[in-house]
Design brief:
The structure is a homodimer of 311-residue chains. The first copy, chain A, is an alpha+beta fold and 311 residues long. Helix content of chain A is 36%, strand content 26%. In chain A, helix 2 crosses helix 3.
Amino acid sequence: MNESEFIKVSAPATIGNIGPGFDVLGLAIKKLADVVEARRTESGITLSVETLREGMELSCDPDKNTAGIAARETLAILGVKGGVDLKLKKGLPLGSGLGSSAASAAAAAFAVNELYGRELTKEELILPATQAEAVVSGGFFADNTAPALLGGATLTRSCLPLDVTKIGSISDLILVVVTPDVVILTREAREMLPKDVSLENFVYNMANTSLITAAFAKDDYSLFARSLDDVVIEPVRASLIKGYADVKENAIKAGADGVDISGSGPTVFAITNQRSRARFIEDAMLRSFKAHGVSATAVITEVDTEGSRVI
Amino acid sequence: MNESEFIKVSAPATIGNIGPGFDVLGLAIKKLADVVEARRTESGITLSVETLREGMELSCDPDKNTAGIAARETLAILGVKGGVDLKLKKGLPLGSGLGSSAASAAAAAFAVNELYGRELTKEELILPATQAEAVVSGGFFADNTAPALLGGATLTRSCLPLDVTKIGSISDLILVVVTPDVVILTREAREMLPKDVSLENFVYNMANTSLITAAFAKDDYSLFARSLDDVVIEPVRASLIKGYADVKENAIKAGADGVDISGSGPTVFAITNQRSRARFIEDAMLRSFKAHGVSATAVITEVDTEGSRVI
């Protein structure tokens, strides 16, 4: 088997949980993505990493970077003898709550499958990508890897056997995604979580998560907007994000229909279905963070329905 | 306003929770229904009750029976001066976990709206029906009233404002519904509930409830079958139903893809999509109850997609 030409694959950023759906829901978004260039080699996995943002430190050891681990796991499932040479162009900020490690894993798994005969479906690539995610995040969770591969909103039962369902999309959903300049590690954020949930809060979050599922299945923005409320995880994680209460309040005042934390944070997202409001919401959120001495970057985006793909 | 002719309305039995979706999901089923005959009167509410099963005791006081209360609440919302004469033909067993009080409430609310100009939608009738339910059950829960009115599977956030979404149906779902001869009162069953849920069980039930939502939205029996598992409420309520563990085990052995308790019980339901298996499952469940000295009645049925209607 000779070295092949490079192919280029992208995998989108993802919003884990989508508010109340802790460890269950995930959503792929446009405009932020990791890119992997990959070619077949005789054996083994080589990895180079190019970060598109300053100050990022990310391991180039293929056994420690999710791209390398996902590639190895995918090669193992395919049962092929060859290797792969990966160049990861890191478009997502690390530790941002936008599924950075999942995007790298998804792109690498997708690329390896493309290079070696495309024998696996996207659904089947979720397992190796999630195995890679587990190595770095300390838990077997597919709420980022599944939407990074499949696109749109996904529903996962992240136990073995892994069970993932693609739900759908909301065509007029606009997301204002704001990442403050603070790093939160998923593993540390998990350690803060409550051990128990009151029965009342259990029912409330379960209802909202199911309503959001129905909203994405029916392409119903209004149903989504009135269900984006989390009484279990958001109150705990908000404490890790300086200024969050004000950012949320000001986004709502600027016309957002809901605000929540993406994954374990610190990225915050607001929703609207009015294009004209998005800039005001973005401005209000950035100003609020600034008033708390926190610099932040923002992007106005929408649902990525395609997930991982060759570009 | 003169007395009118009687109209005849039916409202179906409902399976509250549909397994893991405690207080959130509900499903209308065929073959078991309450019927209300109703006509306009000058003022006030009169109620007679005819029970189709022996040994039932049900109040004919319109202020204590959900049919009477729902009629009163519906008249109040409509703002009309007239009254209504109701004849309730009770087709559902009481305290069975099949939404008996909700079916009476739904039928009466629907009938009053029919008699007085049909100004309210079915969705708008959920509020008065649920208010009636709250008087007798001790809590404001729409997981039976919503499907009894709308048909199919419904998703409710049972707080005010009440938020109800019709999800859909699963066309090849066959339900084996078995009611053992034991009365459990919703109010008493509620007192047994756990006060807290572990984070792990919270996530698991939330995933399954959302997956069941997706299954009904997509008409996907297989997705439903692998999501019908409740680790929060079923273990507690199972203790109220003599022989439940054996009934469940034997139903599965006979080919059922899942078994759970309907609402607060004691009715148990098993699912299959194979018509030929349903009789074997029914037989296995009845035998199991009998082996525990419990007599039971069974019905093989499917989803009622229509809900309350004039018959």
